[in-house]
Amino acid sequence: MSSASTPDKLTGLAPGPDKLTGLAPVVAPHTRLIVLGSFPSVASLAAQQYYAHPRNHFWPLLGALWGIDLRALPYAERLAVVRERGLGIWDVYARCQREGSLDSAIEAAELNDLAGLRERTPALQALAHNGGESARTMRITRALGLPVHRLPSTSPANASWSFERKLAAWREVFGAYGLA
Questions:
Q1: Which of 56, 112, 130, 158 is the catalytic position?
Q2: Catalytic annotation on 112?
Q3: Can you list the domains of the chain with their CATH numbers?
């Protein structure tokens, strides 16, 4: 057995090239609220864009909160609007192994440097987890000394929440930090 396929003693999984790598954070020094997902979907990784799956409610929710059709804008312009309004986007996991896009399939996840992100965003007032898998790290994010919120997932897999119900929950958190 070669060293490239030798399982890791801690995780039992093979190291290296089969791990997926997430996306860079979308932040600015004046970011007040960061929405933390779990890890990008297959569609997001392929497009190298946050929330690229066409049925994900992330961009439509922000559009409804801000009165802008964000989906009509090129991705770079969407990110400019996000930064301008004081919102940040990132994921709790930097790398993981996963077949498909479901959070339940995430294995051997490595956390992003959330403490380092806090240092890069001096105006940061709060963090909001987008869904349950992200919220599993709330113990870690609370240790950063900021308010931490759990938002309903924008994923198409979260079909039990209507768009309107998600919007109400997101509006409440975004409003608390002047983003709605």
A1: 56
A2: no
A3: 27-176 (3.40.470.10)
